[in-house]
Write a structure and sequence with these properties.
One of its GO terms (molecular function) is catalytic activity. It comes from Gordonia jinhuaensis. This is Amidase. With 477 residues, the protein is α+β, with helices and mostly antiparallel strands. The protein has a single domain, classed as Amidase signature (AS) domain (Amidase signature (AS) enzymes). The chain is 36% helix and 16% strand. The protein is built from 14 helices and 17 strands. The strands form five sheets. The chain has an eight-stranded mixed β-sheet with strand order 8-10-9-16-17-13-11-12, with helices on both faces. Strands 1-3-2 form a three-stranded mixed β-sheet. The longest helix is centred in the last third of the chain and has 24 residues. The protein starts with 5 loop residues before the first helix and ends in a 12-residue tail after the last helix.
Length: 477
C-alpha cells in the first residue's frame, strides 16, 4: 500500500487505546509509532489533503522525549506517545493556525489553547493541523489557503466539515485521534461521511475558556476517533471545569448517569425525518432502517417519535447569525474580498437582527432545553440520521437538492444535525453502514443532557453490531 511497510501499516491500523497500551507495556516505542504515522501521512495525505501543516522534526523529538520519560519511570498520561492532529481553528504554540482564512494564513500563535494543552498534558504527540472550511463555517471542507479535503472512501467526494480534515485523516489511518468542534454538525457530519466516530458533548463538558461568547450553548469542542473507546478516552482528557468558562462543569458530571451494560430494555425513539421536518436521501434511509430494525432482536423497544423541534430552526439560525456578525462582522467590513459568499451572507444575516429577535431566540432555546428534558424522561435514547445526504461531489459548495427538495443555502442540507443542537444534549455519529456505492453512512445517537457516560455505553453496544465499525477505506494508488 503506497510504499508503506507491513510494520508501519500494522501500527497505523491500531486504535489510540491500543497504541497507548503498547507503549506503556514496551511493545512499541513512541518514536516507532510517530514515525509510522508520519510516513503514512507523507504517502496518503497528498491524495486527501486532510493534514495541512506538519512538524516532522518536532513530532519525532517529542516522541523521543516521551520514550525517555517512560524509561525514567516518570508518571505518564493516558495518551502518552499517541500521535494527534489539531483542528486548524485551535491555537497551537509555534505552529500555524489559519482557520482556513487568507486573513490568517501566516498566523503562528504563541500559546496552546486549553483543548490543545489538555491533550498534550495527557502525553499526546502533536504531528500537525487538520483542514477546515473558511472560519470553520459549513459542512464541506474547502478554503482558499489549502484547498479541498477529499473523502478517503471516494476521493472525488466531500469529507464533510467543518472537522473534515480530522475525519479524513482518521479514516485514512494517518492519525489515531483528533479534536474537533461542532455548532451545527461539524463533529457529527464529517464522522458520518468518513466512517469514524465523532461526539458533540453537552455544552460545558469541554471548556472553551478563551471564546468571547462563554454563555453560548451552540458551539462546543469534542473528540473524534475510530472507535467509541478511543473517543471516550479523549473526552475524559478534554473535559472538566475551567474558571474562565461560565458553562463549564466538573468532569464528574460526565459520569453522573449510570452506564448501560446491555441494549435489552432500552426505550428507543427513531426519528428518520425528525418528525417529517426534513427530506432525507433514500440511500441514507436504506442504510439506517435495517440498522435500527436489527435492534428489535435485542429486545429493544423502538417507537417512531421525535422531540418537538418547531422552535429549533429559528433559534439556531438566529443565534448562529448573531454570533457570526459579532465575531466576524468587523473583518468582513475591512476585507470583504477575503470571505466566501456563503459565510458573508451568514454574517450579514446577523446584522439584520434586532435585540428582540435575539432575546426571543434565547427564550425559544430555553423552551427547547425543557422539551428535551421531558422527552428523555420517556426515552433512553434518540436515533436519527446524521446527515440528510451521502458524501457528495467535492467540487460542489453544498448539495443543491435533497431527495428532490431544493436546498437554498449552505445550511439547509444539515438540518438533521443542527435542528438537534439547540436541545443542549450530547450527540454522537457512529458508523452504521455503506451505500451500494460504498459510501459511509452514520447514525446519530442522542441522550439527555450530561449523560455522556450513558451515551458512550449505548454507542459501544451499537458499535458491536454495526457492520461498518472499524472498516477502513481501500486506498490504492
Amino acid at each position: 500500500m503506497w510504499g508503506v511497510s507491513t510494520m508501519e501499516s500494522e501500527i497505523t491500523s491500531m486504535g489510540a487505546c491500543e497504541i497507548a497500551a503498547a507503549i506503556r507495556g514496551g511493545a512499541l516505542s513512541s518514536r516507532e509509532v510517530v514515525a509510522a504515522h508520519l510516513d503514512r501521512i507523507d504517502q496518503i495525505n497528498p491524495v486527501v489533503n486532510a493534514i495541512v501543516t506538519m512538524d516532522h522534526e518536532g513530532a519525532l523529538a517529542a516522541a523521543d522525549a516521551a520514550d525517555r520519560a517512560l524509561s525514567d519511570g516518570a508518571d505518564i498520561g493516558p495518551l502518552h506517545g499517541v500521535p494527534v492532529a489539531y483542528k486548524d481553528t485551535h491555537a497551537t504554540a509555534g505552529m500555524r493556525t489559519t482557520s482556513g482564512s487568507l486573513l490568517f494564513a501566516d498566523r503562528i500563535p504563541d500559546h496552546d489553547d486549553e483543548t490543545v494543552r489538555r491533550i498534550g498534558a495527557a502525553g499526546a504527540i502533536r504531528v500537525g493541523k487538520t483542514n477546515v472550511p473558511e472560519m470553520a463555517a459549513g459542512s464541506h471542507t474547502f478554503n482558499s489557503v489549502f484547498g479541498t479535503t477529499y473523502n478517503p472512501f471516494a476521493q472525488t467526494k466531500s469529507a464533510g466539515g467543518s472537522s473534515g480534515g480530522a475525519a479524513a485523516a482518521l479514516a485514512a489511518r494517518m492519525i489515531p485521534l483528533a479534536d474537533g468542534s461542532d455548532m451545527g454538525g461539524s463533529l457529527r457530519n464529517p464522522a458520518s461521511f468518513c466512517n469514524v466516530v465523532g461526539l458533540r458533548p453537552t455544552p460545558g463538558v469541554v471548556p472553551d475558556p478563551v471564546g468571547g461568547l462563554g454563555f453560548s450553548p451552540l458551539g462546543v469542542r469534542g473528540p473524534m476517533g475510530r472507535s467509541v473507546d478511543d473517543v471516550a478516552v479523549l473526552l475524559s482528557v478534554m473535559s472538566g471545569g475551567h474558571r474562565h468558562d461560565p458553562l463549564s462543569v466538573d468532569r464528574r458530571s460526565v459520569d453522573s448517569d449510570q452506564a448501560v451494560e446491555i441494549l435489552g430494555g432500552l426505550r428507543v425513539a427513531w426519528a428518520p425525518t425528525l418528525g417529517g421536518r426534513i427530506p432525507v436521501d433514500p440511500d441514507v434511509i436504506k442504510v439506517l432502517d435495517p440498522f435500527v430494525s436489527a435492534l428489535e432482536g435485542w429486545h429493544v423497544g423502538i417507537e417512531f417519535d421525535c422531540p418537538d423541534l418547531d422552535l429549533a430552526e429559528g433559534a439556531f439560525r438566529t443565534l448562529r447569525a448573531a454570533e457570526f456578525d459579532l465575531e466576524l462582522g468587523a473583518l468582513l467590513d475591512d476585507h470583504p474580498e477575503a470571505f466566501k459568499a456563503d459565510l458573508a451572507w451568514n454574517i450579514r444575516c446577523g446584522r439584520e437582527l434586532s435585540a428582540r429577535d435575539v432575546t426571543a431566540a434565547l427564550r425559544d432555546l430555553t423552551t427547547l432545553h425543557r422539551i428535551a428534558a421531558d422527552f428523555f424522561s420517556d426515552y433512553d435514547v434518540l436515533l436519527a440520521p446524521v446527515s440528510q445526504v451521502v458524501p457528495f461531489d467535492a467540487d460542489l459548495t453544498y448539495p443543491r437538492t435533497v431527495d428532490g427538495v431544493p436546498q437554498e443555502t449552505y445550511l439547509d442540507w444539515m438540518r438533521a444535525s443542527y435542528l438537534l443542537t439547540p436541545l443542549g444534549i450530547p450527540a454522537m455519529s457512529l458508523p452504521a453502514g455503506f451505500t451500494d456505492d460504498g459510501l459511509p453512512v452514520g447514525i446519530q445517537i442522542l441522550t439527555a443532557a450530561h449523560t455522556e457516560r450513558r451515551l458512550l455505553s449505548i454507542a459501544r453496544a451499537l458499535e458491536a453490531i454495526s457492520p461498518a465499525a472499524g472498516v477502513a477505506p481501500n486506498m490504492t494508488a
